[in-house]
Automatic annotation (TrEMBL):
SUPFAM superfamilies to which the protein is assigned, alphabetical: Multidrug resistance efflux transporter EmrE (SSF103481)
Pfam families, A to Z: PUNUT (PF16913)
Membrane topology, as annotated: Multi-pass membrane protein
Keyword terms of this UniProt record: Membrane, Transmembrane, Transmembrane helix, Transport
The protein's name: Probable purine permease
Family per similarity comment: Belongs to the purine permeases (TC 2.A.7.14) family.
Disordered as annotated region, ranges: 1-25
First-listed, main subcellular location of the protein, grouped into a coarse class: membrane
GO cellular component term, pick one: membrane
UniProt-listed InterPro entries: EmrE-like (IPR037185), PUP_plant (IPR030182)
Transmembrane segments: 35-58, 70-88, 108-130, 136-154, 161-181, 193-214, 226-251, 271-297, 304-322, 328-346
Keyword Transmembrane attached: yes
Biased amino acid composition, Basic and acidic residues: 14-25
Length: 367
């Protein structure tokens, strides 16, 4: 019951500029833990299930890259229910803050949506040349890109532990690129594998730029920022990302090809539709959870959480598709986990120092 009340308060209450300034002074903002856990659960569903379903489309005869890209953002109608419910709550409470997002956030969400649409295509195209496990490890390097762009865009503080984490993860991805001989899916050439490698790495870099930009959009909002606005932001991002892929599908004549492809799909015509719809829903959970985590804590933690889910995606791919778990993958995974541990230890040390400093300042103030 208490958790439910905390989540509702996260939906309705926001952070004013005064509160934000106080939060910046202490370098810490209050965390709505139930809301954070809910969004983390959404991320887990999407980060683990999304790549598996996208790969399933390819494994049984799917070949339309923009169709697979389309599924990564087309699940936004599932947001209509929560938004309508929150709108009714808003109408029933005249004293509640503005429901609809401000104009500049709408424009920002449209721009972010276009970037997400392009990023989805890079990731989808890369996944067509790579096994899920390799693609997941490479995409986890978004943490390194997020760290760099967060430092530039939102002035994220760097520590030796953060730098160590970035270096270790980069080494892991380089290792995968150099030792790729026995890892290629059937029918993929060495050049195709490397092409997928760099496409996925480029996708990780682009999303690493986008997430700090989203955090900056939240920080620059004039009105109170709450999770209702985050839902609207995600809805608009998904709509514009879907428009990008839909226009590309029309230009590429994918709509006509889908009917023929569904008839030839290895799992049957019905399962063709099921796979695409399931992928759309699961990927929507991923992006909704990501934007929610940024709202609760920040873009860097979003990257950390995505990376923490990596071992689960690895294991799921090995069991679901019998992919090889090579020594190179194991080494890359170990480097990534070492980097995650380094980051978390650094955060623990920073929090410990921050608490000590706050306690010392409080004692001085009392005197």
């Amino acid at each position: 019951m208490a958790s439910s009340m905390n989540i509702e308060s996260g939906l309705e209450e926001g952070t004013t500029h005064d509160k934000a300034s106080k939060s910046q002074e202490t370098n810490k903002k209050p965390i709505n833990w139930p809301l954070l856990f809910l969004n983390a659960a959404f991320m887990a569903i999407g980060v683990i299930g999304g790549p598996l379903l996208s790969r399933l489309y390819y494994l049984h005869g799917g070949s339309r890259k923009w169709v697979n890209t389309f599924t990564q953002s087309a699940g936004f109608p599932i947001l209509f229910g929560p938004l309508f419910f929150l709108y009714l709550r808003h109408r029933a409470n005249p004293q509640s803050p503005h429901f609809f997002m401000e104009t500049k956030l709408f424009v920002a969400s449209a721009i972010v949506g276009v970037f997400i649409g392009l990023d989805n295509f890079l990731y989808t195209l890369g996944l067509s040349y790579l096994p899920v496990s390799t693609s997941s490890i490479l995409y986890a390097t978004q943490l390194a890109f997020i760290a760099v762009f967060a430092r530039i865009i939102v002035r994220q503080k760097f520590t030796p532990f953060t730098i160590n984490s970035v270096v270790l993860m980069t080494l892991g991805s380089v290792l995968l690129g150099l030792r790729s001989g026995g890892d290629r899916p059937a029918g993929v050439t060495g050049k195709g594998y490397l092409f997928g490698f760099f496409l996925t790495l480029g996708s990780a870099g682009l999303i690493g730029f986008v997430w700090p930009c989203v955090e900056l959009c939240y920080a620059k909002a004039t009105r109170v920022m709450n999770f209702t606005v985050v839902l609207q932001f995600q809805h608009n991002v998904a709509v514009f990302a879907t428009l990008v892929s839909f226009i590309a599908m029309i230009a590429n004549k994918d709509l006509q090809a889908m009917q023929r492809e569904s008839k030839e799909y290895g799992l049957g015509q019905t399962m063709y539709v099921v796979v695409l719809v399931a992928a759309a829903v699961v990927w929507q959970f991923s992006f909704l959870g990501g934007l929610g985590v940024i709202f609760c804590i920040g873009s860097l933690f979003n990257g950390i959480l995505s990376a923490v889910l990596l071992p689960m995606t690895e294991v799921a791919a090995v069991f679901a598709y019998h992919e090889k778990f090579t020594g190179e993958k194991g080494m890359a995974l170990a480097l990534c986990l070492w980097g995650f541990t380094s980051y978390f230890f650094g955060e623990y040390q920073n929090n410990k120092k921050a608490k000590a400093t706050t306690k010392e300042q409080d004692e001085q103030y009392k005197e």
